[in-house]
Amino acid sequence: MAYAGAVREPPVLTEQEIADVRAWVIHEDEHVLAFNKPAGLSSQGGRIQAHTLDDLLWAFARSNGKRPDLVHRLDRDTSGVILAARTKPAAGFLGKAIEARRFQKTYVALVSAAPDPASGVIEAPLLRQEIGRESYMRVAPPGTPGSQTAQSRYRTLAHSVDGALVELSPVTGRMHQLRVHMAHIGRPLAGDVRYGGALTFAGMAAPRLMLHAARLKFPHPSGGYLTLEAPPPEDFGLLARAAVL
């Protein structure tokens, strides 16, 4: 995790990029900034030659040259709530809260059929693999060297013969955890071709991963807990309404 105040060369942002990132803000105070990240935007370090959300945070730089820094990530095609710290103390506080599993993340996703049972807990260790320039996760037998314990909760919110809308909550925070766990129980996420998801949903195109970070509850640096929510993007909502809502 990068901490606020790190020395780096600011990118050159266009007026449109500055307007866009400011429009994505869903919460702002002296300690934190939160955004509803659009799908298709890398959080940090993407290989695509385009600005990441981390780059766009320079739009909020202060006169002393310090700027907010992300405290967690979302996959490039995952939309929804993502948090940045505005100060180094806030970044340190939130980093420790993540390590202590005090962040409660809730996602919604689309799958081709309702899970059976309709709700439950998935406990399956995950092992990271590098294939070419890509990183993958796979379920591994318990005790596999290099594997990490992983636990996810799921709940079916609505379903029909065309598909299902599910709520997902990671207990642990492994890379691609929700995607791999849902594929493990035979319900890969719509649009997630990396882990077996189809590019269609309810007879309509699902050209990207249909996963949205809908809610984040976390301890605030000034005390207490803060809960933030973000509505799904238009393409997600369109598919959900067509099939199950």
Automatic annotation (TrEMBL):
Pseudouridine synthase RsuA/RluA-like domain: which residues? 31-184
Record's superkingdom?
Answer: Bacteria
* InterPro entries noted in UniProt: PsdUridine_synth_cat_dom_sf (IPR020103), PsdUridine_synth_RluA-like_CS (IPR006224), PsdUridine_synth_RsuA/RluA (IPR006145), RluA_PseudoU_synthase (IPR050188)
Q: Which family does it belong to?
A: Belongs to the pseudouridine synthase RluA family.
This chain's protein is named: RluA family pseudouridine synthase
> What is the native source organism of this protein?
Brevundimonas vitisensis
Starting at the broadest rank, the lineage of the source organism is:
Bacteria, Pseudomonadati, Pseudomonadota, Alphaproteobacteria, Caulobacterales
